[in-house]
Amino acid sequence: MIHDDPIPPGTPHDDANDIAPDAAAATPAADADNPLRLRRIRSFVTRAGRVSTGQRRALDELGPRFVVPYANAQPDWDAIFGRRAPRVLEIGFGMGASTAEIAGLRANEDFIGVEVHEPGVGALLKLIGEQQLANIRIVQHDAVEVLEQMIAPESLDGVHIFFPDPWHKARHHKRRLIQPAFVARLATRLKPGAYLHCATDWQNYAEQMLDVLSADPSLDNTADGYAPRPDYRPVTKFERRGLRLGHGVWDLVFKKRGR
Question: Which residues bind S-adenosyl-L-methionine (predicted)?
């Protein structure tokens, strides 16, 4: 589950009531004849989740403007945002606090947030209203289907995947979002020179991310291994607490190679 406030390692991520699930997760089914074919992806919600009164009001009042309905076609994102600007996709924004903070700091860029969890969508809409943010749009749907159908090749200037569900049990690692086929498809949506920024608070997932991203022939690591946390990514309260306790957080920033 992708979330704004990573839970310190050792705490099951899906036991936290205020954490939203992944915007996408891989199922075990894959095409053995084509290892780069995407695994079948499903949205899932481990619990219904309670939508607060404020979140419901934001969904009702701001949803029509800021939530873009899923469609099997590429929308005119320039028309939707009302301008042509650098565009960043965030996969699984949780409750939206980091998304809103980054968008506020980077007002000259536009952000597409993908999340399946309705309380998370409502929470981000509430922040959009409170902070008067005009450069965010939300798609409440599977991230892989959004990527496939709604995002044109070589159209993104950046992608953020912060604290995806680590699926910490070994038998569940195949459900992790960062897999070779997904990364290969994601890379096709990046412009040459665009970046992919992942972060996790689980060391063995960080190691898997590093292996998968390093193996993709279209991506180059911007660091020698893990990257320092970029200034634009906020340090969350759980991350701050974990760091005080000696827990690690790993950032990875890769760029797409030029032609």
Answer: 90, 115, 142, 165
Q: Distance between CA 23 and CA 147 in Å, rounded? A: 11
Q: Consult the annotation and say whether 109 binds a ligand.
A: no
* CA distance linking residue 5 with residue 97, whole number of Å: 9
pLDDT at position 245? 83
Task: Single out the catalytic residue among 14, 165, 220, 224.
Answer: 165
Q: In order of start, what are the domains of the chain with their CATH numbers?
A: 13-256 (3.40.50.150)
User: What's the token pair of residue 97?
Assistant: 């606090």
110 is catalytic: no
CA 31 – CA 35 distance, rounded (Å): 6
Q: pLDDT tens digit string along 93-115?
A: 999 999 999 999 999 999 999 99
> What's the CA gap between 144 and 128, in Å, rounded?
25
Residue 203 structure tokens: 């060391």
pLDDT of residue 25: 52
pLDDT in tens, 129-170: 999 999 999 999 999 999 999 999 999 999 999 999 999 888
Mean pLDDT of 200-226: 97
Q: Is 99 annotated as a binding residue?
A: no
Nearest to 161 by CA among 48, 1, 47: 1
Q: Is 239 annotated as a binding residue?
A: yes
Determine whether the annotation assigns residue 118 to a binding site: no
Treating both helix axes as pointing N-terminal to C-terminal, what angle do 180-189 and 203-215 enclose, rounded to 10 degrees?
60
DSSP assignment of 202-226? -HHHHHHHHHHHHH-TTEEESSSSS
